[in-house]
Amino acid sequence: MYTKYNSDRKAAASLGWPQSTFNVRKNKAIELGLTPDPEFNIPQGHDLKGTSRLYDSDGNVKMQWIKTDRNFDKQKELLLIAAEELKEDIVRERPVRFIPHINEELLSCYVLTDYHFGQLSWGEETGEDWDIDIARETLVKYFGAAIKSAPNSKTAILAQMGDFLHWDGLDAVTPTSGHVLDADTRYGKVVRMAIQVLRDVVQILLEKHNNVHIIMAEGNHDLASSVWLRELYSVLYENEPRVTVDTSQTPYYAFEWGNTSLFFHHGHKQRINQISKAFVGQFREIFGRTEKSYAHIGHYHHKEVKEDQMMIVEQHPTLAARDAYSARGAYQSQRGASVITYSKSFGEVSRVTIRPEMLK
């Protein structure tokens, strides 16, 4: 109607509506993607999915439906472009003083998966209260206890294996299916606190180990956020020679330690029975040079171990409390996180597992 009359007032009068009613319905139609404007611009990161039109008896277009759908490849490309532009304004971290009393043979891997930072759980419904403040306190206490328990290994891996953030944008929904999530506070606050707590973790790891390798894996809850986490930390520590960051744009990660190879994936693309083949195909040279191979995945929030001819695959539990979805589905698992120490020559030689009950 607006296109026909080129005036909100005239269009409203032709329908016998007050202009305020017409404006409200017009704006709602635009918000829902129903627009009479043939020059509609497809939002960045979206593809045109289809169009439909409603004609009057004279053959004039009264309404037009323009349907779009998100294109995750385009959105990822836009995020990478934005991250590159933001890099110039980030204040770099200064090198941390380190007093070496280390075992050159050892590497300690601090495994953290499915932490769902920003999740809200109501104790009467889920069995335990959980919010952003509890999550931050638990994480700091876990790393404090894990670092004390770990040997003075030369190298540490911060293996953050995905779903560190509970949701992935301004709306608290899963990024692919749009399922509504129980969220504590605003996304901006979640991002701010997540950045700070991970910086604190890297700081204390640098005080314990000579080198720190950071993995910020893609998860199914934080597809986009994992992109800026990797890019952010690669810039934060570019002046710290003792820190390296895996900036792989594929959701598979590897680290070679002497005769030992370590592989990481969230677990949302490959399950425990198939993942060893995926790692061998993805990292053929690393696998070929090493004799002791170990893979780590998460995603399912409970522990499972499978050994095949190629490697030992371990599915890790989470430290986080369960949410309403898990409680209503009666999903239950023993919570915890481990720091696993590997020898260059002999593979895994020790581990310490810490339960949240130990941190209270």
Report on the structure:
This protein is of the alpha/beta class and 360 residues long. The chain folds into 2 domains: 2-70, no CATH class; 72-359, 4-Layer Sandwich (Purple Acid Phosphatase, chain A, domain 2). 32% of the residues lie in helices and 24% in strands. It contains 11 helices and 13 strands. It has helices at 2-5, 8-15, 19-31, 72-87, 123-126, 132-149, 187-208, 225-236, 275-282, 284-289, 324-328, and strands at residues 46-55, 61-70, 103-112, 153-160, 211-216, 243-246, 253-257, 260-264, 292-297, 304-307, 312-315, 337-343, 347-354. The strands form 3 sheets. It has a 6-stranded mixed beta sheet with strand order 6-5-4-3-12-13. Strands 7-8-9-11-10 form a 5-stranded mixed beta sheet, covered by helices on one side. Helix 4 (72-87) packs parallel to helix 8.
Cα-to-Cα separation, first versus last residue: 64 Å
Shape: elongated
Give the ordered list of helices and strands. Answer: HHHEEHEHHEHEHEEEHHEEEHEE
Sketch the major β-sheet: 6 strands, mixed
CATH architecture of the largest domain: 4-Layer Sandwich
Proportion of β residues? 15-25%
Number of strand segments? 13
Distinctive features:
360 residues; alpha/beta; Purple Acid Phosphatase, chain A, domain 2; six-stranded mixed sheet
Topology:
Elements: H1 2-5, H2 8-15, H3 19-31, E1 46-55, E2 61-70, H4 72-87, E3 103-112, H5 123-126, H6 132-149, E4 153-160, H7 187-208, E5 211-216, H8 225-236, E6 243-246, E7 253-257, E8 260-264, H9 275-282, H10 284-289, E9 292-297, E10 304-307, E11 312-315, H11 324-328, E12 337-343, E13 347-354
Parallel strand pairs: 3-4, 4-5, 5-6, 8-9, 9-11
Antiparallel strand pairs: 1-2, 3-12, 7-8, 10-11, 12-13
